[in-house]
Each structure stands twice: as structure tokens, then as C-alpha cells.
């Protein structure tokens, strides 16, 4: 199998890849500009905010849709570092890193961690939101996976803390209905950005 996910961009800054996930006959990826946070300023001033993200769904023959991430900042923002597609449930699952109803502020963003689980049908026509565990404003999800042999009913997740120089990672496990099986437990004073079952 050859490479069939490539992203072309007009961006002048580097791009950080997030959310690479597979759906039947399709791969979805999103990216944001490195060092820019979730938004960037155009030279015309602070009222010219545009998202610094874009998303693309690519089929093996290279066709794709772009522009999913180009939305106005009218409802605040979500920052995602993790997403999974469930073949079993035929749904997308997202654990956002950060969430706010306010305009993005780099300083305040360190305190916008979430305890949210978002789930969406493949066409995003049905979306649900649930809280899982205690909300710790400095902790946000960085990765998660469904635990094998649970019919995609149990998730193990990593949360990261980056607050005024403090860096730490935590692990937790919970069911899709929000029942916590393992509360947030510190696993190190470093940022772990991925979890896999081998």
C-alpha cells in the first residue's frame, strides 16, 4: 500500500498533524499551525481572526474535502488532540484538550481543560456530549483508545497538564456512559501524547 494521505497547504508556517483516523475507504486528518495556537491574526488587525486549522478527508485515489475547520469563532473554541473512529459503533469519538465559550487567549487557555466526551455519527448528523470524571481546568485530553474486547464501550485516556511551567500526564479509564473506572492518576512529570495497544 502506498502513501495516500498527503496534505498540500498554502501555509507559510509549519503544520502540526493531529487526529489522523481511518474510516471505511477514507482517512481524516486535521492540522494547525505550529506555535500559533488555534487561531492566528491577519496583518489587518485583531478583528481579522481566522481559524488556523483545516481538515481533509482523503480517499485512496487522492480525492478529498477541505475546509471543515474554517469556521468563525462565534461560539468560542474547542482544541482537539485526539479522535477515534469506532467501526463497532459506526461513530466518531472526540475528547477535546481545551474548550471555551470565550475568544482564545493564550494565557487563559492553560485553564480551559475539559472533561468532555463528544460522539458523532459518521455524517455528523447526530452529536452527543457527555462529561466524564472531575473537571480539572489545567488538565486536557491528549490521547485515548478503546480498550480491546470491550465492544468499544470502555476508553483509556491520557490527560496532560501544561500550566506556568508545570508539565504532567495523567491516565484515566471510563465507560461511554460516563462511569469512571480509574480516576485521573498521575503517571509522570512529562507530557505523554499517545497511547496504543499492541
Automatic annotation (TrEMBL):
Pfam families: Apyrase. Its cofactor is Ca(2+). Coiled coil: none annotated. GO terms for molecular function: calcium ion binding; GDP phosphatase activity; UDP phosphatase activity. Gene3D superfamilies: Apyrase. InterPro entries: Apyrase, Apyrase_sf. Ca(2+) binds at residues 81, 142, 193. It comes from the Eukaryota. One of its GO terms (biological process) is proteoglycan biosynthetic process. The keyword Metal-binding applies. Keywords: Calcium, Hydrolase, Metal-binding. Belongs to the apyrase family. This is Soluble calcium-activated nucleotidase 1. The lineage of its organism: Eukaryota, Metazoa, Chordata, Craniata, Vertebrata.
Amino acid at each position: 500500500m502506498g502513501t495516500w494521505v498527503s496534505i498540500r497547504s498554502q501555509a507559510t508556517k509549519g503544520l502540526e498533524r493531529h487526529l489522523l483516523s481511518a474510516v471505511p475507504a477514507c482517512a481524516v486528518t486535521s492540522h494547525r499551525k505550529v506555535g500559533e495556537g488555534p487561531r492566528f491574526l491577519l496583518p489587518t488587525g485583531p478583528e481579522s481572526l481566522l481559524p488556523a486549522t483545516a481538515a481533509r478527508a482523503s480517499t485512496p485515489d487522492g480525492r478529498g474535502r477541505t475546509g471543515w475547520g474554517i469556521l468563525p469563532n462565534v461560539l468560542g473554541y474547542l482544541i482537539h488532540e485526539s479522535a477515534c473512529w469506532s467501526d463497532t459503533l459506526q461513530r466518531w469519538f472526540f475528547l477535546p484538550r481545551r474548550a471555551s465559550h470565550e475568544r482564545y487567549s493564550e494565557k487563559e487557555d492553560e485553564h480551559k481543560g475539559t472533561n468532555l466526551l463528544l460522539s458523532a455519527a459518521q455524517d455528523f448528523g447526530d452529536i452527543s456530549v457527555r462529561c466524564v470524571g472531575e473537571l480539572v481546568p489545567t488538565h486536557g485530553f491528549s490521547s485515548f483508545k478503546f480498550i480491546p474486547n470491550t465492544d468499544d464501550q470502555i476508553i483509556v485516556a491520557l490527560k496532560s497538564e501544561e500550566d506556568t511551567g508545570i508539565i504532567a500526564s495523567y491516565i484515566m479509564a471510563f465507560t461511554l456512559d460516563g462511569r469512571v473506572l480509574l480516576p485521573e492518576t498521575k503517571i509522570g512529570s512529562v507530557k505523554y501524547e499517545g497511547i496504543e495497544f499492541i
